[in-house]
């Protein structure tokens, strides 16, 4: 094997070795620290971007005024809720659209703003702590008694990796899975996807059904 071929083979091997360190979609290309070493840190929340769509179907029974026959219809309420956080302001907004036997009505959007902070401490040994402070500043609900109320909380639980020891791309916090899209010395990005649907166990015509699907991304920076 000539010198050029050896150099090319060596460079390829190094590149493959470095790329193997890249687990999350936005992870840095090269990292010499282990996943455990990088994630065990104190992280301050800097951004939230979330959206959830819920569909609630409820049976409606009406009587035809001419034939007096019973008519079964479905009233569907679709609610879209978004959660954002940047700087120190957290905003939760929702809009509901009702389809009542073909008559569609969109409700007035509702929104609540908070002054918010969150710190996530992931410790060696499998323990984590989330500390939160939230003050409700404004709500579209008239005379909301929670305006101006400050709440603080500190919860401790257990963390582990959901996937194999080599990949370590899914973080589990007390049973909830979070995909790690970026993990570096200074930044942690977690995405939680969730889905619920009870329509398979319900008779929509007589019992109704409920489903909810969404995704929320949390961005943290090292403290």
Could you characterize the architecture of this molecule?
The protein is mainly beta. The protein has one domain. Helix content is 10%, strand content 58%. The chain is built from two helices and eleven strands. The protein has helices spanning 3-20, 35-39; strands at residues 42-63, 70-86, 89-100, 103-106, 110-122, 127-139, 150-161, 170-173, 176-183, 187-197, 209-222. Strands 1, 2, 3, 4, 5, 6, 7, 8, 9, 10 and 11 form an eleven-stranded antiparallel β-sheet that branches. Strand 1 (42-63) and strand 2 form a beta hairpin. The longest helix is centred in the N-terminal third of the chain and has 18 residues, at 3-20. The radius of gyration is 25 Å and the shape is elongated.
Q: Give helix and strand order, one letter per element, not per position.
A: HHEEEEEEEEEEE
Number of domains: 1
Q: Which value, in Å, is the CA radius of gyration?
A: 25 Å
Residue stretches low in confidence (pLDDT < 50, at least 5 long) are 3-20
Detail the topology: elements first, then pairings.
Elements: H1 3-20, H2 35-39, E1 42-63, E2 70-86, E3 89-100, E4 103-106, E5 110-122, E6 127-139, E7 150-161, E8 170-173, E9 176-183, E10 187-197, E11 209-222
Antiparallel strand pairs: 1-2, 1-5, 1-11, 2-3, 3-4, 3-5, 5-6, 6-7, 7-8, 8-9, 9-10, 10-11
Summarize the structure.
With about 220 residues, the chain is mainly β. The chain has two helices and eleven strands, in the order ααβββββββββββ. Strand 8 (about 170-175) and strand 9 (about 175-185) form a beta hairpin.
């Amino acid at each position: 094997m000539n010198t050029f071929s050896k150099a090319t083979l060596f460079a390829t091997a190094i590149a493959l070795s470095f790329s193997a360190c890249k687990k999350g979609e936005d992870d840095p290309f090269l990292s010499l620290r282990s996943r455990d070493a990088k994630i065990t840190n104190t992280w301050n929340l800097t951004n939230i971007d979330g959206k959830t769509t819920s569909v609630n179907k409820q049976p409606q029974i009406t009587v035809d005024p001419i034939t007096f026959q019973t008519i079964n219809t479905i009233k569907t309420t679709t609610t879209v809720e978004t959660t954002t956080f940047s700087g120190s302001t957290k905003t939760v907004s929702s809009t509901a659209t009702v389809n009542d036997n073909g008559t569609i009505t969109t409700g007035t959007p509702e929104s609540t703003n908070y002054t918010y902070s969150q710190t996530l401490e992931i410790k060696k040994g499998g323990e984590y702590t989330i500390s939160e402070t939230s003050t409700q500043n404004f709500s579209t609900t008239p005379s909301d008694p929670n305006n101006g109320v400050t709440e603080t909380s500190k919860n401790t639980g257990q963390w582990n990796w959901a996937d194999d020891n080599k990949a370590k791309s899914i973080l589990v916090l007390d049973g909830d899975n979070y995909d790690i899209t970026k993990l570096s010395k200074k930044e942690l990005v977690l995405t939680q996807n969730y889905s619920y649907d009870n329509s398979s166990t319900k008779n929509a015509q007589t019992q109704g059904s409920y489903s909810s699907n969404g995704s929320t991304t949390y961005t943290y920076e090292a403290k």
